[in-house]
Structure formats: C-alpha cells, structure tokens
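Because discrete structure vocabularies remain unfamiliar, we first show an illustrative case, written as a sequence plus integers encoding its fold.
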Amino acid sequence: MKHALAVVLMLIALPLSAVQPDEVLDDPVLEQRARDLSKGLRCLVCQNESIDESEAPLARDLRLLVRDRLVVGDTNDEAIAFIVDRYGEYVLLRPTVTGSNWLLWAAGPLMLLLAGGVGFGYLRTRQSADEPEMIALSDTEKNRLAELLKDE
C-alpha cells in the first residue's frame, strides 16, 4: 500500500523549480524578483524551458547571473538587457516586437491572409472556367463496353 501511494504521489507531483538552495538570495524581495525574471528567460540548452525550471549547468549560471545583477542594484529591465546583450534575444521566452522581430510576429497572420487570397483566387477561376466538353462514345466503344459488362 505504501508503494502504491508513493507512485501515485510521484505521478501527480507538480514540476518543481530547479533552483538550488545555495542559489537563493537572503533578501526575499530580491529572490522573488530573480524568480520572476528567471521564468521569462529561456534555457539555451533545453530551449523550451525557462532557466527557473531547467537543471542544465548553463541555466544555473544564468540564474546566478540574474541574481548577481539584482544584488549590484540593476532594475529588472537592466538585468534582462544585460543578459540579452550577452546571449542575444533568443534567451527571452517572449521575444520583443521590435526591430527585425516584428516580421516574425507578423509572419503567421500574413501567411494566413496570403493563403486565403490564393484560395479565393483559385475558387474564382474554377467558377468562371468552362465546363469540359463531353464526348459521346463511338459505336465500337459502346459495343466493347457492353461486352466487358456482360462478362462480369
């Protein structure tokens, strides 16, 4: 019974953060800011996990870097800007809509509009196309068809 309970508890366990006890700051306000910032930064190893969730060594280094920046007095924006300057905008889980990124943000809706326009144009040309001309079977073709159908 104990083993079954342990298995059930492990299956329903929520994902925990990967922050190690030695990373936690003494100031709870700074620690909360660091946790909030870490949730918005991508682990460059795992790629679809935040550094707060990732156990990769690089994610740990980034978590420590965020905390170091906050301890020296950086604002949240300054700490994020420092990391983006160092690692590029890919480190953000929610990239900004500035610079060349606006094209990436607009690509989905633009492709949808383009596909809708192409589909509409295709349907319009099909409606205006002439019906294909039906050619009647010759007498020999009719006789051959009758023979084939009679054999079955």
